[in-house]
Amino acid sequence: MKFTIQEQIAAFEARRASANARMVEIMEAAAEVGATLDTAQQEEFDTLTDEIKAIDSHIGRLKTIEAQVIRAASPIIVTDPASASAVRGGVVVPQQQQRNPVITVQQNVAKGVAFTRYAIALMRAKGDLMQAAEIARGWHDSTPQVELVLRAAVAAGTTTDPAWAAPLVDYTNMTGEFIELLRPETIMGQIQGFRRVPFNIKMPSQLSGSSAQWVGEGKPKPVSALSFGTVTLGFSKAAGIVVMTDELVRFSNPSAEAIVQRDMIATIAQFLDVQFIDPTVAAVAGVHPASITNGAPNIPASGPTADDLRQDIGTLFAMFVQANMSIRGAYWIMDPVMALSIGMLSNALGQAEFPGINMNGGVFFGLPVVVSSNVPHHTSTGESDPATTMLVLVLPSEILLADDGGVTLDASREASLQLDDAPTAGAATLVSLWQNNMVALRAERFINWQRRRNQAVAYITGARYGGNFIIPKPPVTDGEEGTNGEPVRDAGLVTTTRS
């Protein structure tokens, strides 16, 4: 059996320690009787001394060889944890495998860039997939998956089903990165704990509970009937159209890509937030769901002071407790101006009443705060009509959410659009994209939600805590106003839903 240099050194050091211990024993035995070493002891002691000298010399030679081997050693390259474990266990890795390690190279680009370039290629190609693939070839070094997806889409016929063709998995990865960028911009993306369910699956729901009673010995037990129903979340498609000039999408620099990315995120985020939180959004069968606050229990604000706020918050908590629901895992949703106003409330000593909250969120009465400028608010029209907003308390574990987690894109410049955030059928005024040298990008996402229990959401209306804070009106675009007299928020944004 062949021993390594380290094993030989350890063996000789053990022999040296044993010989040294025997020499100590010989001297101690002579000291106990008060005599010198006899002839046998002298011979043994001298033999051990010579043996230790020989061992020391041999150990020195072994250490010299060990140092030379270390200087001449080459590193063993392993490519996976299994190979590393084998090497540590003494398995020799073939030299051929060491010379040709597997190296994985990843693109050093920010998340969402590939999906943005996919959108730009579609817009520059005016919806032509073959031409878009040629455009994407220019980004092959940094984002080769864009070209791969566009070419695969021609043969496979779809870009949303990864099981259809293996290259289309790249599309799922691109949309996944874009969704990761979209989540922090939406109310839903900042809330954790939704009860996620698939589309078009019937889920049982209990409509009435059972009863129990005390039963005496030999008496019949009560039997009560349970009533069940079913809940199904069908497909609801949120669609938005972003219109850009042809010159903008022709640019390939990062600044133009950032503009396209921000516009796509703003289009989807603003629309989904309003549809999710606005209590005036009612369900339309086969088209879109109701907002989580539509028909939910609510109370009017008691007043603008900190004591009024505490009283209203206590009322909301009592509503949850009365419905036999825990507020563990609940979230607050409010306008950032309202959050700032609450954070600025102070007591008689000048100390903040609620130091954990600010316009970026925080913690309020032990629960996290999600802020969004898309929370509905009433703009002040005078001193007698102050600005107000709403505070929403939501329990996400009681909210059913169906989301395919992807975004589908298409582009065109041969269309005529109705530039309105509430388009109507048969509109008289349309804008020709071809005439105005524009390109339209349509983004679609399948998503649906529903309250599992009606008491899962409660909110305060008419809130103006901290005084008559001012929520400025959105800027008027081109001097136009909406049908209700309010300024147009974004005249270039077209958002709608389709079943």
Question: What would you note in describing this structure?
Answer:
Residues 176-461 form the Phage capsid-like C-terminal domain. It comes from Caballeronia pedi. With 499 residues, the protein is of the alpha+beta class. The chain has three domains: 5-99; 113-185, no CATH class; 237-498, no CATH class. The protein is 36% helix and 18% strand. The chain is built from 13 helices and 18 strands. Strands 5, 6, 7, 8, 9, 10, 11 and 17 form an eight-stranded mixed beta sheet that branches. Strands 1, 4, 12, 13, 16 and 18 form a six-stranded mixed beta sheet that branches. A hairpin with a 2-residue loop joins strand 7 and strand 8 (361-364). Helix 5 crosses helix 11. The longest helix is centred in the N-terminal third of the chain and has 34 residues, at 39-72. The model is unreliable at 153-168 and 479-499 (pLDDT under 50).
Key structural traits:
single chain; 499 residues; alpha+beta; 3 domains; 8-stranded mixed sheet; 6-stranded mixed sheet; 13 helices; disordered C terminus; Phage-like protein; Phage_capsid; Phage_capsid-like_C
What Rg do the Cα atoms give?
37 Å
Strands, total number: 18
Nearest-integer average pLDDT: 76
- % residues in beta strands: 15-25%
Which bin fits the share of residues in helices?
25-40%
Distance between the termini: 77 Å
* Helix segment tally: 13
Structural class: alpha+beta
Biggest beta-sheet profile: 8 strands, mixed
Q: Which stretches of 5+ consecutive residues score pLDDT under 50?
A: 153-168, 479-499
The dominant shape is: extended
Number of separate domains: 3
Main location: virion
Pfam families: Phage_capsid
Subcellular location: Virion
InterPro entries: Phage_capsid, Phage_capsid-like_C
